[in-house]
C-alpha cells in the first residue's frame, strides 16, 4: 500500500475503509428508531428548503471531524453530530444553545447529560 | 462545552489496522436531535409539517417495491432488458422514482453472483427499498465485502461455488445498485404476486439467493 513512488502512506481518509480487516458481520436487524428518522428528516427538510444543508456537506463534516468520533459513534450518531456541527458552521444555531437545551430537556426528565462522555443517565 | 476541533485527516488510515465497529452515543444523539429540532422550530427555520413530510417520504419505500421490479423482470424479457439498460427508467415504468442517484441493476446468472456494498458511506437505494439494514451500515460489512466477499456471504449462509464469479459493486453518491436475482426455473409461469413474495431484501443486495447455484 504505497504511492506511485513506492513510499509514503496511502492517502485516504479514515472513512475510506474498503478492504481493511474487520470482524464478523452482525447479520441482525435493528429498527429505524424515531430519533434516527427525525434526524434524517431535519436534514432532508433543510435540504428541501433552499438547500440550507446538503448530504455532501454532512459527509464532508463526518469525514473530517476526527477519527475518534468516526470510530466510536454509530452511523446515525455520526450524522446527527455532523448536522449540529454544520448548522453551527452556518451560524444557524450555536453549539452552546443546543447543549443547553439538551441539559434542560434531560433535567425535566430527571436525567443528566455528560457531554464529554456523550451519555445520558438518570440522576 | 467547546466543539470538537475539525481537521482534515487525509492520511489517517492504517491499512493493516482492523476497523473499529463503534455504536456509541444513541441516547445522547437522540437528545441532541430533539433539542436541535425544538430550536429550529422556535427560530421558525422549520415548521412541524416540514419534518413530517420528510418522515412520510422516508417511511413510504419498502422492499416490496424492489421485489415487484424483480418479479416483472422475471416474467417479461423485454422489461428485463430495459431494466438492465436503464434501472431508473425501468423503475419509473413501475411507478417508482429513484430520487437519490442513478439506479444500476446487475443480473445474477448461473455463472455470476453480484453483491452490493458502500465502502465509503452507506449509499443504498433508499427511495426504492427504504433504510438499509443494520449490517449494511456496519463497518465490518463495508470493509470486508470488497476484500473477501465469499467469506462475508458465507456468514449470511450463502455459499457461492468456486465456478461462479462473485462481483462486488461499490455504491457511491451517483450510483445505487440493485441485484436482479437469478429467476426460479418456472418463473415465467407463476403468478406475479407469488414471485413478489419470493424476493427478500437481502436478495436485492446479494446477501441471499432464491435457490443455491449448485442446483442450477
From TrEMBL, chain A:
Gene3D superfamilies registered for this protein in UniProt: Nitrile hydratase, beta subunit
Residue intervals of the Nitrile hydratase beta subunit-like N-terminal domain: 13-114
InterPro entries referenced in this protein's UniProt entry, alphabetically: CN_hydtase_beta-like_N, CN_hydtase_beta_C, Elect_transpt_acc-like_dom_sf
Protein name, per record: Nitrile hydratase
Annotated source species: Phreatobacter cathodiphilus
From TrEMBL, chain B:
Matches recorded under InterPro entries: CN_Hdrase_a/SCN_Hdrase_g_sf, CN_Hdrtase_a/SCN_Hdrlase_g
A Pfam family annotated for this UniProt entry: NHase_alpha
Superkingdom to which the source organism belongs: Bacteria
MF term (GO), any: transition metal ion binding
Protein's name according to its UniProt entry: Nitrile hydratase subunit alpha
Keyword S-adenosyl-L-methionine among record annotations: no
Organism (species): Phreatobacter cathodiphilus
SUPFAM superfamilies listed in its UniProt record: Nitrile hydratase alpha chain (SSF56209)
Protein keywords: Metal-binding
Nitrile hydratase alpha/Thiocyanate hydrolase gamma domain: residues covered: 29-208
Amino acid at each position: 500500500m504505497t504511492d506511485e513512488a513506492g513510499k509514503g502512506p496511502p492517502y485516504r481518509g479514515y472513512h475510506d475503509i474498503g478492504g481493511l480487516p474487520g470482524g464478523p458481520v452482525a447479520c441482525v436487524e435493528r429498527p429505524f428508531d424515531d430519533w434516527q428518522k427525525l434526524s434524517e428528516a431535519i436534514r432532508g427538510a433543510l435540504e428541501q428548503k433552499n438547500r440550507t444543508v446538503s448530504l455532501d456537506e454532512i459527509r464532508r463534516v463526518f469525514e473530517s471531524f476526527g477519527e475518534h468520533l468516526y470510530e466510536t459513534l454509530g452511523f446515525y450518531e455520526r450524522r446527527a453530530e455532523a448536522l449540529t456541527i454544520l448548522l453551527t458552521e452556518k451560524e444557524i444555531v450555536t453549539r452552546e444553545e443546543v447543549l443547553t437545551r439538551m441539559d434542560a430537556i434531560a433535567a425535566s426528565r430527571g436525567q443528566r447529560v455528560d457531554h464529554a462522555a456523550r451519555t445520558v443517565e438518570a440522576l | 462545552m467547546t466543539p470538537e476541533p475539525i481537521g482534515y485527516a487525509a492520511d489517517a488510515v492504517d491499512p493493516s489496522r482492523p476497523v473499529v465497529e463503534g455504536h456509541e452515543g444513541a441516547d445522547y444523539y437522540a437528545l441532541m436531535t430533539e433539542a436541535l429540532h425544538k430550536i429550529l422550530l422556535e427560530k421558525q427555520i422549520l415548521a412541524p409539517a416540514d419534518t413530517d413530510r420528510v418522515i412520510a417520504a422516508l417511511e413510504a419505500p419498502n422492499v416490496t417495491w424492489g421485489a415487484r421490479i424483480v418479479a416483472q423482470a422475471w416474467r417479461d424479457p423485454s422489461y428485463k432488458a430495459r431494466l438492465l439498460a436503464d434501472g431508473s427508467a425501468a423503475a419509473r415504468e413501475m411507478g417508482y422514482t429513484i430520487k437519490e442517484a442513478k439506479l444500476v441493476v446487475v443480473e445474477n446468472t448461473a455463472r455470476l453472483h453480484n453483491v452490493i456494498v458502500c465502502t465509503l458511506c452507506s449509499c443504498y437505494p433508499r427511495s426504492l427499498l427504504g433504510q438499509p439494514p443494520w449490517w449494511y451500515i456496519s463497518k465490518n460489512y463495508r470493509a470486508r465485502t470488497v476484500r473477501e466477499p465469499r467469506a462475508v456471504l458465507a456468514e449470511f449462509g450463502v455459499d457461492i461455488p468456486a465456478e461462479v464469479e462473485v462481483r462486488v459493486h461499490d455504491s457511491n453518491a451517483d450510483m445505487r445498485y440493485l441485484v436482479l436475482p437469478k429467476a426460479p426455473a418456472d418463473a415465467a409461469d407463476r403468478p406475479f404476486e407469488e414471485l413478489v413474495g419470493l424476493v427478500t431484501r437481502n436478495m436485492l443486495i446479494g446477501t441471499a439467493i432464491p435457490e443455491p447455484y449448485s442446483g442450477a
